[in-house]
Amino acid sequence: MALVVAATLVLLPSWRGVRHVVTLVHEAGHALVALLTGRRLNGIRLHRDTSGLTTSVGRPRGPGMIVTAAAGYVAPAGLGLAVLALLRADEILWALYLALAVVGFVLAFIRNWYGVLVVLATGAAGAALVWRGDEDVQELAVAVIAWVLLVGAVRASIDLWTHRRRSRSRTSDADVLARLTHVPAVVWNVAFILVCAGALGWAARPLVVG
């Protein structure tokens, strides 16, 4: 049920709205890994066109910069797996707390007004689920959140492929990684798709086996 709802949200025109949440988590992935690798985080921006930008200060090349650039597209899939694992362990509130922690983390570093609106709206929805939602509503919402992140991660990485074919702009994460590693951007793009699709397949395996 939740997987069907999530797939509908991601595959239909509602994706434009849903993608703001996926982008929020994408940028959170960049920001968290930047901090963990010793970089200084300047800030996060979320834009009306559903794109985002995370800037940090540190060595312009090297492993820290590479993993920071690589973290964005896989972050929604990673969070989706974590939320789903908590749900399957019957830790529904902890799953919501984890999602709210990510929102709170982004709020601490957001640097534009539109981004503030996106973060506050997302946080308000999550807070309402924690304090106002009954257990059945919380369980369904957590499941939908997890599957939206997992399916949305796959779509976002596929959208990157389409965007790169149509645009001459070479500023995407895959292009940054190509410049840092001398591995073609298309290889990085395929890697994002495979990792995200693998996470989705792993999450869906119990549904198929069961």
Automatic annotation (TrEMBL):
The chain crosses the membrane at residues 65-87, 94-114, 140-162, 183-204. Keywords: Membrane, Transmembrane, Transmembrane helix. The keyword Transmembrane applies. InterPro entries: Peptidase_M50B-like (IPR049500). This is M50 family metallopeptidase. It comes from Aeromicrobium halocynthiae.
